[in-house]
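Any chance you could type out some protein's one-letter sequence along with its C-alpha cells so I can compare the two?
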Amino acid sequence: MNFFSCFDQTGKVIARCQTEQEIEVLKRMGRPIAEVRQLRNEEAIVCSLTSSPSDYNEDY
C-alpha cells in the first residue's frame, strides 16, 4: 500500500493521500500542493496502523 505526503510552498505537510487520484482531487479543490513525496515503506506501515490518510485531510 502506498501513501503520499503533500507539502505546501513552505514545506509544511498539508495532506496525506493513499492514491494519486486523491492528490488530484485536492488540487482541484484548490489546496496549494507544491510537492508530493511517496512515504517509505516503514512510514506507510505506521500510517496504516494509526489511521486512514483521509483522517489527516480536514476538508476531504
Summary: Residues 54 and 60 are 7 Å apart (CA to CA). Strands lie at 4-7, 13-17, 35-38. The first strand starts at residue 4 and ends at 7.
